[in-house]
Amino acid sequence: MSGSAAQAYYETADALRLTPRPLVSVVMATYNQEQYLAAAIDGVLSQHVEFAVELLIGDDCSKDGTLALALQMQGEHPCAIRVLSGTSNVGLLANYARLIRACRGEFIASCDGDDVWTDPGKLQRQVKVLREIKNVGAIHTEFDHILWRNGRWHELREFHRHWYGDRAVPQGRVFNELLKRNFIQISTACFRGDLLRMSVDEGALNTAYSINDWPLCLHVAARSDIAYLPESTTRYRKVAGSMTNSGYAARVRFFEGQVAMIENVCRRFDVAAADQIDALTRLYRPMLSAAFFAGATETFARTLAWLRENDSAYARSWRGRLLPLLAKSRLAHGILRVIQDARVRWREVVAYR
Questions:
Q1: Which of 105, 244, 260, 288 could cysteine-pair with 25, CB 3.0–4.6 Å?
Q2: What is the mean pLDDT of residues 275-301?
Q3: How far apart are CA 57 and CA 44, in angstroms?
């Protein structure tokens, strides 16, 4: 058993058969993902590599058969798989942190328990880049995005190509760009292990945050170059119940966690005030809309006050002037929510097939 009493966990592994010196550790955080986990594991074990790989599966007290399946797969692949299972639910960030701390590899890759690596040459190509270009701290790739709507999966192939169009995906020293928006899908990424461990030790996975990928990538990008491969290697799944696929109240909490994260990152890396306000504005604007549709009056008022103080252009816009008035009308609130939901659905229909 390892960890503090409050966050103790057990590791299941075959010490005699486990690969002794893995070059790459793959972390797979999972919770209630029984129906997807086998495919995620298979995508890792199917990698064609010239080096040793270990897979660490971290189950955060799932209520379904996720842990049983993980243990079964560990028994079938004792040379490669280690399973970390908690005695209590600690949340995504704490689960992810203990996985990273348990890694033995020089490089650390990630694949969440509901995602799938679809390219068997993914790890080999990424490790080649990390070995040859020492100033690269992480390398990520193109990916396909699928989401569950109306009883079936809808797919958007090559998400970055759809988002960036003719523009290039940022590479090199991307910290300032990454501060504005997270464009690294962590299930596609492979990191230098020392940088990722340092990030965790610095608090990049603060449990007050709402996500694990963006703060980790920011910490690594603050110290190194980021590389990108344009081939799609991963299928990223957005399932019902995930934070980014939930209702407006959940989205308000999601943005609040991101705001706290950006503020902490800016303090740690001494980001210029103008750049910090620019990054926060990109969160406060959608948070105002989410708070409006969620009926979160206190958050709405606090967010509006921040925008009026720091984002004069938005405060003068028709949206900035009209939303506070409409927030007082239940009828207007209901009509606008119907319109907003329809807009979101329509964008998905156009983009996803």
A1: 105
A2: 93
A3: 11
Distances (CA, A) of 217 to 16, 174, 176, 181, 211: 34, 10, 12, 11, 11
Q: What CATH number belongs to 9-242? A: 3.90.550.10
3-state secondary structure the chain: CECCCCCCEEEECCCCCCCCCCCEEEEEEECCCHHHHHHHHHHHHCCCCCCCEEEEEEECCCCCCHHHHHHHHHHHCCCCEEEEEECCCCCHHHHHHHHHHHCCCCEEEECCCCCEECCCCHHHHHHHHHHHCCCEEEEEEEEEEEEEECCEEEEECCHHHHHHCCCCCCCECCHHHHHHCCCCCHHHCEEEHHHHHHHHHCCCCCCCCCCCHHHHHHHHHCCCEEEEEEEEEEEEEECCCCHHHCCHHHHHHHHHHHHHHHHHHHHHCCCCHHHHHHHHHHHHHHHHHHHHHHCCHHHHHHHHHHHHHHCHHHHHCHHHHHHHHHCCCHHHHHHHHHHHHHHHHHHHHHHCC
Structure tokens at 178: 């990454």
The model's pLDDT over 31-50, given as tens digits with 9 standing for 90+, comes to 999 999 999 999 999 999 99
Residue from 72, 96, 75 nearest 18 by CA: 75
Token digits of residue 194: 């020392």
On whether the CB atoms of residues 238 and 156 are closer than 8 A, the answer is no
Domain assignments of the chain as residue spans, ordered by start:
9-242, 246-351
pLDDT per residue over 233-280, tens digit each?
Answer: 999 998 654 444 458 899 999 999 999 999 999 999 999 999 999 999
**Quick one: what percent of the chain has pLDDT higher than 90?**
77
